[in-house]
Amino acid sequence: MILPRKLLDAIFAPGVREFYHALKEYLDGAGFVPFTIWQVDMSICTPLMGEYKNAEGRYDIHDLGFNEDGSSDGSRVLEFFDERIEVCATVFFSHMGVIYGAVTFHAKPEHKMFYELDSFSGYIGQRISELMAREKNINVYVDYQKKIEFVKQSSRILRAVELDEVVAMALTFFMDVFSAEAGCVLHNGEFKGFGVEEGDIRNNIRIGNHGAYAYVMGLDYTEFIEDRIDCSKFNIENIFIIYEETKNIRILLFNIHFDIIPDKEFSELVSSIVSTAVENAVYHQRMTKLKVQESEMAVTGDILNKFVSKEVSADCGIKLRGINRPARAAGGDYMAVKETDKGLFFCVADVCGKGYSAAVFTVVLSVFTENAALFSGEAALDRLAGSLNTFLLGKNFGDRFITAFFGYIDRADLTLKYISCGHEPVMHISETADNRIVSDFLPIGLMEENYSVKSVQLKKEDILFLYTDGLTEYMNEDNLTNKVKQLAKSEPDNILDVLYEDMVLDRDSQRDDFTCMIIRI
Question: 502 and 362 in one domain?
Answer without folding.
Answer: yes
